[in-house]
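Section 4.2 – Deliverable D4.2 (structural model, holo form)

The reporting period included a commitment to supply a predicted holo structure for the target in complex with ribulose-5-phosphate. Inputs used:
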Amino acid sequence: MPMDLSPIDKAKFVAAKRAVDYVEDGMRVGLGTGSTAAWMVRCLGEIIREEGLNITGVPTSSRTADLARNVGINVISLDEAKWLDLTIDGADEFDADLNLIKGGGGALLQEKIVATASDRMIVIADVAKEVAALGAFPLPVEVIPFGWQTSKALIEETLVNMDVLGQNTTLRMNGDTPFVTDEGNYILDLHLRRISNARQLSLVMNQVPGVVENGLFLDICDVVVIGGGDGTVEVRDINEGTVEQDKMDFTESDNLFADL
Ligand SMILES: O=C(CO)[C@H](O)[C@H](O)COP(=O)(O)O
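Output (structure tokens):
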């Protein structure tokens, strides 16, 4: 662990490092997408190298697949794995019930399928991701490119009918062109400010023609591992009802990730 990392990267690192403690020999593990998940993939590669574990990874994006292969993780598709023991992924927001907004990195569709196909989902996050109510982070909704403007108009009309705050919807861009997901779709970001009925919103969004999936992950996450920039780690298990706190010592770390 390089000592010159920013506090936010230290937070992501300690959350990731603690989460890979849940990985056991022989497991099939869903590999999330995003900067926090990238730390987890690196940590997993490290324990595979050091402890000789037999771990198979199912990545949730082409980015994660590339990184996983680079760090020596055996990568297979979800269809090859069929079912997973565990998925570890980041999140854009989580609330007290461990409901999430995901998709800030544009991989929500594969992330949701992989997490849902897992016995357990662990979210790794820095402390800033915890919210009292979901919705300050724009809700990503993946739509097919055909007729996306119609889907956008239908979403906006639906939000007005539902009396949802802040109905501003934007097409995610990548420079001058629309951002395209691994599945060839577009993403609409819904600027809602506060989501008061996530379950209803999720159901209604997925009924709009052209919508493939939305970034609300409800009743999917089992455990959240929250990292702090000072090395503190909190693990909350929603099923067990337990909260554990720990502190990781940065001085014990080395430069294992410097070559990546
Ligand atoms: O959902 C995601 C990607 O689709 C990410 O997990 C989410 O955006 C968090 O990313 P980061 O760890 O970089 O903050």
